[in-house]
Amino acid sequence: MHKKATFYAPFQYGDKLRRINVGYNNVKKIIKYLIIIISVILIFTFRSKLISVLTPFILGVLLAYIIYPITEYFEKKDVGRSRSILITFTIILAVLLVALWLITPHIVAELKSFTTELPEIRNNLSREVDALEGKLNSIPGINKAINRIYTKLNSTFTNELKKLPNKLNALFSSFLNFILSPIIAFYILNDREKIYTDLYLLVPERNRKTAKLIVSDVDKVVNGYIRGQFYINLFVGLFTSIGLLALHVKLAVLLGILTGIFNFIPYFGPIIAAIPTVFMALLDSPRKALYALIIYLVVQEIESAVISPRILGENVGLHPLMVMFLIIFGQEFFGIWGMLLSVPLAAVIRVVLIRIAQI
User: In this structure, are residues 223 and 348 in contact, taking their beta carbons and an 8 Å threshold?
Assistant: First the structure.
């Protein structure tokens, strides 16, 4: 009996060790999941403050991705990295100043013309509204409904005036972010190898090869999406402005610029931008509004059918319904940044999960 117990003792000890090891691994997994859950809760709880803090860094990363090809070109010409970045910023600033010098007088002239015509437009709208009100008065209960709408609009206007100090504070924060983002972009581009190295050191050594593959995949998706969207929206803004100028629509250049900016928001952005465009054309005539809408639709169709597939390719890889859901979800919980970043962020998560599944 004594010999038998001695013979099985090492196996029993090994079984205990295995059980302890399994228990330890389970505890590690539970702790990881708890950390993830707590992090998600904290992000949602403090999302407004988090967005305020991260905004200049997000803008800095976006700017770094956009200008990286230019800085890389100068580096290949044996220009130092810091000098390459400064040269790139100088070129961009010069291009922006020239663009403003060319565009600003035209926008100012359009605004002056619009301001001059505003009394006549207001009188025409007033006559149309009075005529419409005369027709609607024959409908029972319409006066009460109109009064409710006026009361609600008045209340909304008063509430917006009360929020004006907060909006001025937000405007100052936006200006500060605008100043900080190029500085952050400079450091990202100048110290990119060091940043990558420091991040890799946070990853366990056995997982670093996989981490490099994931970073490469993410870089490809983000790179393609940001630069692709920049070129696409530049095309949309430029050709929309040209089309509206050809129709002599009021504020054509400004409307084209707004269309290019709103086009960053998939699906909903173009619809939002179309409303003021058609409205401004409608002030002249219904026919001009129809032509403006046709130009708008043609530009959007070329962008979605020809330009976007060629430039973006398969970088996003998300179903349109998923894209719509992500935009609504992002806007609801994170505002404008949620609308803009929900799609590329989901694309990044997708490629990360695909890479992890292949391990």
Answer: no
